[in-house]
UniProtKB/TrEMBL annotation:
<keyword id="KW-0560">Oxidoreductase</keyword>
<dbReference type="InterPro" id="IPR050463">
    <property type="entry name" value="Gfo/Idh/MocA_oxidrdct_glycsds"/>
</dbReference>
<dbReference type="InterPro" id="IPR006311">
    <property type="entry name" value="TAT_signal"/>
</dbReference>
<dbReference type="GO" id="GO:0050112">
    <property type="term" value="F:inositol 2-dehydrogenase (NAD+) activity"/>
</dbReference>
<dbReference type="InterPro" id="IPR000683">
    <property type="entry name" value="Gfo/Idh/MocA-like_OxRdtase_N"/>
</dbReference>
<dbReference type="Pfam" id="PF22725">
    <property type="entry name" value="GFO_IDH_MocA_C3"/>
</dbReference>
<dbReference type="Pfam" id="PF01408">
    <property type="entry name" value="GFO_IDH_MocA"/>
</dbReference>
<dbReference type="GO" id="GO:0000166">
    <property type="term" value="F:nucleotide binding"/>
</dbReference>
<dbReference type="InterPro" id="IPR036291">
    <property type="entry name" value="NAD(P)-bd_dom_sf"/>
</dbReference>
<protein>
    <submittedName>
        <fullName>Inositol 2-dehydrogenase</fullName>
        <ecNumber>1.1.1.18</ecNumber>
    </submittedName>
</protein>
<dbReference type="InterPro" id="IPR055170">
    <property type="entry name" value="GFO_IDH_MocA-like_dom"/>
</dbReference>
Length: 464
């Protein structure tokens, strides 16, 4: 056994506290052990996956670094519309890599096996479909589409081309989410009835006021390419390019950027295809910087009863000026407990609560409003029906789990993508899963801007 694997198993033993009654299997841990062994494997030139990144902003840059941390991966080229990012790519990844402002030049290269698409949201689907038609595997940042209307055509393209396609919501590959799913499916929290999930932020950077380079101008930014799909042509605007998440024309707001993460995790754990009713409210309450999307948004989303799960309600919230500070949470609430996933899938707790057999009497009850004689008669009858044990609230120990120190779900997510390319293994977040998470998130925007309930057919992936 390798030293890395021994270290992992030792860490695992110190970070998991699960009872035999709630632990259904060790599948998630076994899979991670496999990942460690894969990392030790030496790949031949024929096994190597050659990638190129299209869009070198925050996610593109970090996705590229994560992909290169996986064994047997080589960066061939990069595409971005800002000259400074192409120059920086050569500084970081090597002067030999190919750089361009035209993504078609990346797709035309025979030495590119796969592309990472991390552009502004409005270009995700267009480039993904073009890449698949060119025979490239695609890792698309979330949401995979800018508009719901793009989804079915992108799925059709993937099915026709048979291209390997994965969406970048890494929590569905997280060891913590996989273990949480096992416990949820084992009945650890009883019957699900509601979910509360949120992202809170309290910083200018967290609210997407990203740093703009001093040389930003039409000379260093290819504004014409960037706005080629715009219905209304606007003059060059550095904010709209470097802070595109703040504008509906290029991004999808907090719903498409963050709700989609929450929904991806929810759908993964519950095996849900999606909700049937969505309503959202919000506003721009603090960051009045010209953005045309909310900085605070809440959504109520209803999931119908299906063969996968009972009916339940999800409440999602993003707050970009939260006094709670930077914090995210997903609480899956059942009839007998709460599964509380910590920030970014680093772990979870399960708190157990179960009603006693007896319904209760006295306390906050109409019992005390009756005559003394009636109260005595009721109490005698109650004690005959229910034993002392039946009247006790069960004390059930909870569960705590933390991923091992240094664990990175992003690497597992990319390894899944590369396994799909090399070995033909099923993709953990394919186009159908990705769209079923993206569509309800984008429907939150439709609900907010149209001020109405949006109906969604999750089975057939179309608006109701």
């Amino acid at each position: 056994m390798s030293s890395d694997r021994r270290k992992f198993l030792k860490q695992l033993g110190g970070t998991i506290a699960l009872t035999s009654a709630t632990l259904s299997s060790f599948a998630a841990m076994e899979e991670h052990e496999y990942r460690i062994l894969q990392a030790e494997k030496r790949y031949s030139a024929n096994d190597k996956v050659r990638i190129a990144t299209i869009g070198l902003g925050i996610m593109g840059y970090n996705d590229t670094r994560t992909a290169l941390a996986c064994p047997g991966v080589e960066l061939v080229g990069c595409c971005d519309l800002y000259t400074g990012r192409l120059d920086h790519a050569k500084e970081v990844f090597g002067a030999h890599i190919f750089t361009t402002k035209d993504y078609h030049e990346i797709l035309d290269r025979n030495d590119v096996d796969a592309v990472i698409i991390a552009t502004s949201d409005n270009w995700h689907s267009t480039i993904a479909k073009a890449a698949m038609r060119k025979g490239k595997a695609v890792y698309s940042e979330k949401p995979m589409v800018h508009y719901i209307s793009e989804g079915l055509d992108e799925i059709k393209t993937q099915q026709e081309t048979k291209a390997v396609f994965q969406v970048g919501s890494q929590r569905v590959s997280s060891l913590a989410f996989k273990k949480a799913k096992e416990l949820y499916q084992s009945g650890a929290i009883g019957q699900i009835n509601s979910i509360e999930a949120s992202f809170n932020r309290q910083s200018a950077l967290g609210a997407w006021q990203y740093t703009i380079p001093l040389d930003a101008s039409p000379q260093t930014v290819d504004w014409n390419r960037y706005t080629a799909k715009d219905q209304k042509k606007l003059p060059y605007d550095s904010n709209r390019f470097f802070r595109w998440r703040n504008y509906r024309e290029y991004g999808t707001g907090v719903a498409g950027d963050l709700f989609v993460h929450l929904l991806s995790g929810i759908h993964f754990i519950t095996d849900s295809k999606g909700p049937d009713k969505i309503f959202a409210i919000g506003g721009t309450y603090y960051w009045k910087d010209g953005r045309n999307v909310p900085d605070v948004m809440s959504a109520v989303i209803e999931y119908p009863h299906t063969k996968e799960h009972p009916a339940f309600q999800a409440i999602l919230r993003v707050n970009f000026i939260s006094g709670e500070g930077d914090h995210s949470s997903t609480k899956i609430i059942g009839s007998e407990g709460v599964l509380d996933l910590s920030d970014e899938g680093g772990g979870f707790t399960i708190r157990k609560n179960k009603m006693p057999v007896a319904p209760g009497i006295d306390g906050w009850d109409s019992f005390g409003t009756y005559t003394t004689a009636m109260q005595k008669a009721l109490m005698d009858d109650y004690n005959k029906k229910y034993s002392a044990a039946d009247q006790q609230i069960p004390n059930i120990p909870g569960t705590t789990y933390h991923t091992p120190a240094g664990y990175d779900a992003n690497i597992d997510h990319f390894n899944s993508f590369f396994d799909g390319i090399r070995l033909g293994k099923p993709i953990v977040e394919d186009a159908v899963f990705g769209f079923r998470a993206a569509a309800p998130a984008l429907a939150c925007n439709d609900s907010y801007f149209q001020n109405k309930v949006i109906h969604w057919d999750a089975e057939h992936m179309r608006l109701g």
